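Hey,

The postdoc asked me to send both predictions to you directly instead of through the lab channel. I've kept everything plain text so nothing gets mangled by the mail client. Protein one:
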Amino acid sequence: YDVGTETVKPTSYKACKWTPLEPRFFKLMEDQNKRNKYLKIRVSEEEMDAIKRKFQNSGMETLSGFVRTMIFKCYIVQMDGNKLRQIHKLASNIASSINQISVRVNSTGKIYDNDIAEIKDGVEQLWQPLRFLQTQIL
């Protein structure tokens, strides 16, 4: 993530997934006059700058509303960077195989059963980690 002038490469990736609010949260958010508790957190200058940028990009009117929305409508999913690199490598291998096969088909005009089997095998290898990631997100 970007903090000021530095770019930090995380070892695990986090994603914010928007989810429908539970009915009890609608009641909490409707009655703003009952908000009588104060939440205070400490952040670094770089973190505050990042929060302000995200707030400004959100188009929301208040920082408090932005923070509440992020808390009640999002959840954080931690993904292992190694798994994401593995998926990227598999996708690149499949793309390379498809490209090689398409070049051969364009030059010879023939497609072989082995070519189709190779693509199917690669896609199946890619789907396995994607299904796992899907279970982590949904």
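Protein two:
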Amino acid sequence: RMVTERSVTDAQGVRRPDRVVWLPDGSVHVIDYKFGERHENRYRRQVSRYVDLLRRAGHDDVTGYLWYPIDGEIIEIR
């Protein structure tokens, strides 16, 4: 199952990850695409918040990814 840009609300406000994918093994991948300037620390914190939000929602196996399509780079965030 997959959703794109679906708003999720928590105590800190509204979050909108680019893509969330639920895999058949029960794991969840949250993916955020970046096309502009690289603000590595800020983007890592952003994806980490998505991962934390999904864990608090009851998903145990969650991995986040920062994907820079133009550079062909994917950074895993747990």
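Summary for protein two, as requested: Residues 27 and 61 are 5 Å apart (CA to CA).

Thanks,
C.
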